[in-house]
Every structure is written in structure tokens, then in C-alpha cells.
Amino acid sequence: MAEFADYAVMLRDHVLAEIDNHFELRVGNYDAVIKVWIDADGRVQRVTVSKSTGIVKMDEGIRRAVAAVQPLPLPPPVEMPQPINLRIVSKAVKPAAP
What does the domain layout of the chain look like in residue ranges? Predict the structure, then answer.
């Protein structure tokens, strides 16, 4: 079980790094849950949004960012249950007033 959790953390870290490359995702305020299916070669095969941000454009941006994280450095453990559920939360920091 620890290897499943470790893999999910690795996936989450790669997803967050990719999200950080997209300004509109980096500065948004949202809370979403995504489901990710990964094949034996470490390639993302499918991504769905199971808890929406409430903004279709934001959901699609998150889905595209997750799909772009490929290939992952490691394949999932052989018996890892899929899909892998990830919660993505962004609390944008507002610029300080002058």
C-alpha cells in the first residue's frame, strides 16, 4: 500500500509542476478532484474531472495539464487500483495593494 501512496504523491507532484506552467491555472482559486488512468508504460491514458471547479474552462485546463504529464518517470505499481484520484487545490495570492 505504501508504494501506491508514493506513486500517487509522485503523480501529484508532476501534475502540480505542470499546472504551475499555466498562468491561468496558477492564479485561480479552485478545488477540483480528478481521476487519472495510467498505463503500464507510465503514460496518462485518460483524465476526467469528478469534482468540478465550477468553471468549465478551468476544468478543461486542469484536464489538459494532467494529460501533458507524460510519460511519467515510473509506471504505476502492477496491482495499483485505478483510476488514481487527485485533489487539486489552488488559493491564488492576490497582489498587495500599493
Answer: 2-90
